[in-house]
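quick one, two chains, predict together pls
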Amino acid sequence: MLHTSTSTYRYQAVEKQITDMIESGALGLGDKLPSLRRMRRDLGLSISTVHQAYVELERKGVIESRPRSGFFVRRRATRLPRTEPHPSAMTAPRPVTRLGLIQTVLESVGREDAVPLAVIEPGADLLPLTELSKITAAMVRDNPRRALGYSPIPGNADLIRQIAFRSMEYGVPVAPDDPVITVGCMEALYLCLRATCHRGDTVLIQSPTYYCFLQLLETLGLRAVEIPSNPEGGVSPGDLDRALRTYDISACALSPNFNNPDASLTPDEAKQEIVAMLAARDIPLVEDDVSTDLHYTQKRPGTYKQFDQKGLVLLCSSFSKTIAPGYRVGWTLPGRFRQKVLEIKATTNVSTSTPAQMAIAEYLRQGRMERHLKRLRAALEQQMDTMQLHLEQCFPPTTRVTHPCGGVVLWLELDPQVDSVELFFRAGEQGIAIAPGAIFSTGDKFSNYIRLSCGEPMTERIRRGLADLGAMASEMAG
Amino acid sequence: MLHTSTSTYRYQAVEKQITDMIESGALGLGDKLPSLRRMRRDLGLSISTVHQAYVELERKGVIESRPRSGFFVRRRATRLPRTEPHPSAMTAPRPVTRLGLIQTVLESVGREDAVPLAVIEPGADLLPLTELSKITAAMVRDNPRRALGYSPIPGNADLIRQIAFRSMEYGVPVAPDDPVITVGCMEALYLCLRATCHRGDTVLIQSPTYYCFLQLLETLGLRAVEIPSNPEGGVSPGDLDRALRTYDISACALSPNFNNPDASLTPDEAKQEIVAMLAARDIPLVEDDVSTDLHYTQKRPGTYKQFDQKGLVLLCSSFSKTIAPGYRVGWTLPGRFRQKVLEIKATTNVSTSTPAQMAIAEYLRQGRMERHLKRLRAALEQQMDTMQLHLEQCFPPTTRVTHPCGGVVLWLELDPQVDSVELFFRAGEQGIAIAPGAIFSTGDKFSNYIRLSCGEPMTERIRRGLADLGAMASEMAG
């Protein structure tokens, strides 16, 4: 079956179909591929579309063309096996002390000359560069008085309304003026944690978790209890229940879908159960929803917020992973903590930059977002697919990797011998930026994991970087 | 003597000269003003310039024209007497609990329909609306890839360089890459207080002080020690010394010039002495330099930072009071606390909005700032002068007021019977927004003070608002 998001990416669907056939064994090593004409007839696509798919597969080394004979399977287009649930147990509350390492990693992430396997935004060519910059220019030029003036503390009214509409469309109960606009998702998380916790409090997080959560907990003087995040099932209500019975938890900070780094998705039923458990104890849940828009699935997965009946879930998100990282525009739906969030916002930076808010409000108003997201998701899924194939070629066969259905990151489990912080430094010397597993947890449980980004399209340079990285991992495995 | 900043405002200098002559008694009630021709000859100005000054004075009710006779002094153009130093002593450390009242005031400040006597930015017509919005549009349109992408955590490199140059020009020792770009001055203050203090610590502030300092101390759980701020002499090194000997002070937060609300300016010698005292004890000083660019004096007054030899002064400022409040771009020169400031910035919002930073960097690069500031200062001085004259007409003669040489605000001492919070609420009912004295201190010492803004040019509506306000103040004085 061919699911195609847009005509531009029809060839990718063909490519995926061929890859799936090779992976399933329907096409074996050395087998001849169907002719272009036959594919055209069977799939009802143009010859050029099918040809483009074949050329792409050849570029990846999956098939080869033989003069006057056609295309043949060159190697099994397998992917590395899936990452298994980590056998880690819940950890007792502990102070977070990862800042030093995280800082070091972040400095390397920002290196513009590095092979970009650590940044987690879609590459610039996937952003609506022309559309959004034209809208920004027009909005500022045509409304200078509004553009130079302060926005109200909660944010630009047009943008608030647009965000409320979008939220309602995907099932989140929200009043039209609920959203508070923030300086990116990071500020949303910061405001919500400050609104719900005090220094010394304990916050429940999933493990592995996005290192920005850890930085934030550390700089706010909060303690962390970790429960497992599993690539296949996300967070288990049972684990959460045990943690709630064992420790004095002030708030939870969870990612509903495509958790960075393990891309785990917590099923909607589990989300509902978790929200109910927390509601029974009046414990707030800060939800990092920033990756959900990047789903490859037909339907947008649900959020914790949509099951929230007591205003205890504080949903946080932004436009940084979809249209404009540098605009620094995010939002929160802070439920019953709205007043507190606004108080803190007022004393942190008063309000968010007006031109950026006006531009994004107009972009949304013109209905451009959904079209853009369709293209973006298709491109990211394709890039991730390509990356998976390359990993299989470059890394030792004992390596395991996640098979995400959304987001931009892959989570690799290397041989237990490999110290990924060591690998991070060695790769850095070769100009390759990766994120080592250690920064995604308060403890050392992910010392042989790395996170790779698929935000940039595959290039010869990335290909070589992956080969070098795989060789280092092999060597370190001894 | 005529000091004129730009030809546009030459008439204002004439106007001021006449006003000064009336005030000094050189021109008495009913006296005839020099003819236009005579003024032209004496001052070397065009007739139209002199005429414009006379028309302006007539509009203000200071002079009147009699057909075929010329212009005559209609009333003494006096100002209210100067505010005297407040007889308040130093206060012992106490928690700050002003949030509730400040929030109420802020909501009223934001009312777009109110008579604008509470906002403290220059009115929109004094901002470089066309210039800056055109530059913004061009920068974003021509550099979409850069505009949509993240800025580094410390900020856009071009803007950092421009700010370093400007700082050096007015005598602040700063390395070209020292500045950290922030989301307005508010974020700069927030970052610097978080970098230098922990919850429960005591911060020395001047009293009265900008209420945002108080909000910030309160939300960060800091305690305040207040020493007097005097409209004429600013902060006294003797008071500071006594406080340092008496209490365990973790940091100071002071305004060097045109302190909001009392417009006090601490002389440069006192600044130097204070910096030396703090250096001897290794106590950091967070300096709110946001108003200094609005000096009416020939020379820019100095900063604490320029006497800093140990990296203990953290200068904070922004472009919100000069070119673009809504862009939310400020900066700090954080001295030895730079690393800590960046750590907190990374976990608060990662970085400042890129389009706003690019636009302001380009505006500075094109050398437009100084020309704009000249015009802005002349206009603000003029607006403040006009406001002073109106106050004398509208308020009881026992009222005292500051005579600032910079900034946008006037600080009025009303009859001791007047409760300015009560006045704030009564004025609010009449659609007049003012700031009551109580929000500028942790205690009740300024209960009969109000702050008025001169950011907007005088209009009939403001004139009527002032008259109503003065009538209420009279009535409440009993």
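Residues 7-73 of chain B form a domain with the Arc Repressor Mutant, subunit A fold (CATH 1.10.10.10).
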